[in-house]
Amino acid sequence: xxxxxxxxxxxxxxxxxxxxxxxxxxxxxxxxxxKEFYFALSERVDHLLLLKHQYEDxxxxxxxxxxxxxxxxxxNLVKDDVSSYGDFCWIDFEDEAGxxxxxxxxxAEILYxxxxxxxxxxxxxRKLNNRFVYLSTEDGRMNxxxxxxxxxxxxxxxxxxxxxxxxxxxGKGLIIWKKEKALPPIPKKVIMxxxxxxxxxxIISLQHASNAKGxxxxxxxxxxxxxxxxxxxEDFKAKVKKEPAAWFIFDRKLKEWxxxxxx
Length: 263
What we know:
Layout: H1 3-8, E1 15-21, E2 26-30, H2 34-41, E3 47-52, E4 59-61, E5 66-69, H3 74-79, E6 88-93, H4 96-99, H5 104-116, E7 132-136, E8 143-147, H6 150-170, H7 188-192, H8 195-198, E9 202-205, E10 210-212, E11 215-222, H9 229-239, E12 246-251, E13 256-261
Antiparallel strand pairs: 1-2, 1-9, 2-8, 3-5, 3-6, 4-5, 6-7, 7-8, 9-11, 10-11, 11-12, 12-13
Helix pairs in contact: 2-6
């Protein structure tokens, strides 16, 4: 799948929920889908060991008795409707030689990850040299994603948010907005400037964004720690009546992104 096709599949969620747990190296999110994650981070992903899935064209590893997708084949997985799988969980790995060295204890730990959607110990393995663990029960609805390097998360957000804004603007899930150019990625340092708010739990709302006077302004509200999106959606109705805690602002004249914190 080419870049344009991946961009064209940007999800149409009207808001994103992000809650960073920096002490345990994971993010809880709503609205970030696998295809967007992979589009932003494809250069940093080798092979995927599939822990829970419904993908039919995977390969089989005899040591772990688990299926996997080779790097060159991931583009075909991206085309699939992974949100229809139910559970969709994977861990990346560098090469099959390392995978074949996994101990029984390590295999048990990654099986626990996919079953409980939580770790027994930090899920980064020298033999796999993995950067990520991706755990979801319905892709894009509530994902727990582990990041070995936080830079990867901030990069992913900087790429994904402008794509999702453009998809929202089009109303059809398409990234190309006929009357205007797609927005550039948001620099990592701009995303990082509101990281303290993300540690509390935030909603980034596309439906409340504005596009006037040469600026795109996307509001951010602090909402707290949620594990149930139905509860969050109900509480968010009250939150939006208050002033946002921050804004992401793109100045079309200067062609620059900035973040403004209001608390």
